[in-house]
Specification:
The protein has 209 residues and is mainly α. It has ten helices and no strands. Helices cover 75% and strands 0% of the residues. The longest helix has 29 residues.
């Protein structure tokens, strides 16, 4: 095995990139620190300088996914705060759903780490990951509350209940994609569009004058 040399920060990013590739190729359960070190051409000791074990690498990948998710929320909620019309919220929320489902479709292994049993049920997640994941959901609820306060959407349901109902719908579609139930692109698009309409006209119905 040829030994490769990395700068301190470069190795950490190389570990995460290689781990992502390995998980995509062979799944979470086929991923090990030994194979990772071999793929990178470094000793296992070198990899352990940044991550104490396999679980910490998986959590770092999940955290990166939540960071990307939070970036969408920050961008789209800022748009609807500056343009306080119903149409602005509808456009931003449709874009949010598209990005969310596209992420799950293109990154199923990372999505599984973000919401699946490998981290949340079989292992106790770190406080950093748990707190950040909760904060993303809090930000999502805050976006809905902002839209209610600005009368872009109605308040028939509380912001928390509205958020839970909307997220459950989107998450359910993502699970069906990841599990291979939805394989026809046209049929999937129809379901996604219908879900958007039902959420916006039901859960997020316009306020009554």
């Amino acid at each position: 095995m040829t030994s490769k040399h990395y700068h301190h920060g470069d190795l950490k990013q190389a570990v995460l990139a290689a781990a992502t590739d390995m998980i995509r190729e062979q799944g979470v359960h086929g991923f090990s620190m030994r194979q990772l070190a071999q793929k990178l051409g470094v000793s296992r000791t070198a990899a352990y300088h940044h991550f104490k074990d396999r679980q910490q690498i998986l959590e770092a990948l999940a955290l990166a996914g939540f960071n990307e998710h939070k970036a969408w929320l920050d961008e789209l909620s800022a748009q609807t705060e500056s343009d306080q019309t119903r149409l602005a919220f509808e456009a931003s929320y449709r874009e949010y759903i598209r990005r969310y489902i596209d992420f799950a479709d293109k990154n199923p292994e990372i999505y599984e780490l973000m919401f699946g049993a490998d981290i949340w049920r079989r292992q106790k997640p770190s406080s950093e990951l748990e707190d950040f994941a909760k904060q993303v959901f809090i930000d999502f609820i805050a976006w809905i509350k902002q839209a209610q306060d600005q009368r872009q959407i109605g308040d028939k349901y509380s912001s928390r209940m509205s958020g839970q109902l909307a997220w459950a719908t989107i998450h359910g579609i993502c699970r069906l994609i990841i599990d291979g139930v939805y394989t026809d692109a046209r049929s999937l698009q129809q379901v996604v569009e219908m879900a958007m309409d039902e959420i916006l006209n039901g859960v997020f119905a316009a306020p009554k004058n």
